[in-house]
Amino acid sequence: MLFNENLNKSQEASFGGFNLRYSERTKGLNGEYEIVCRDYKTGDIVEKRSGHNLIVNSASILIARLLKDNQEPDAGISYLAVGTGAAGWNLQSPPQPTNTQTQLNSELTRKAFDTADVNFIDPDTGDPTTIPTGVVDFSMTFAETEAVGALTEMGLFGGDASDLRNSGTQVNYRTFPVLNKTNSMVMTITFRISA
Questions:
Q1: pLDDT digits over 149-162, tens only?
Q2: Is 138 left (phi over 0), alpha (psi -120 to 50) or beta?
Q3: Each residue of 168-186: pLDDT tens digit?
Q4: What are the start-end ranges of the E strands in 40-146?
């Protein structure tokens, strides 16, 4: 028997005379995002976007590392990165994200999450809670002088991620029609990951 076949097929096992069926697979991780850009002087919303994002294949590697040994890696998701996409992209219609993505095509900047930026969310109310749940919000604000450029991609990074561009394990990825972040905007991006 191959181990992978056992994971992928519906199997029955007998333990002490009890038959256990373990055909159910977890639904996996899902992601959503919201981007809100505000005028840094007035606070008025100048752009707002939301949608789903793609959990990439390497997310399972980070999860497995965290499950195997809580000493390695040092952290789960710890950075949010934004980028300008690959040369030659149609900025109004960039390519769809793929689950094989391991870094941004052209990372512009990244920021580390503070403890206050990451919260468990009560799935019934949508409110932050101190009780661990299967829903976590990662929220990051870029000041008017940060992440200025023609943004078309973003993602969350963890594991051995650092302030260095393209470092760490990518967890999710999203491309979108160009968002021209200027130095008159404060931009807040919130990713919600649901297990």
A1: 999 999 999 988 99
A2: beta
A3: 999 999 999 999 999 999 9
A4: 45-55, 77-83, 107-112, 118-121, 128-129, 135-142
Residue with tokens 């994200």: 97
Q: Which residues of 149-166 are buried (b: 16+ CB within 10 A; e: fewer)?
A: bebbbbbbbbbebeeeee
Q: Cis peptide before 177, with omega less than 30 degrees from 0?
A: no
Distance CA 47, CA 36 (A): 6
Residue with tokens 């991620």: 161
SS3 state at 58: helix
pTM score of the predicted model: 0.81
Q: Which of 57, 74, 5, 73 is nearest to 171 (CA)?
A: 57
Q: How far apart are CA 120 and CA 130, in angstroms?
A: 7
CA distance 141 to 31: 19
Residue 35 to residue 83: CA distance in whole angstroms:
14
User: Which residue carries 């990825």 as its tokens?
Assistant: 173
Helices (H), the chain: 3-8, 58-68
Torsion of CA 12, 60, 123, 46, to 10 degrees: -150
How many residues does the structure list for the chain?
A: 195
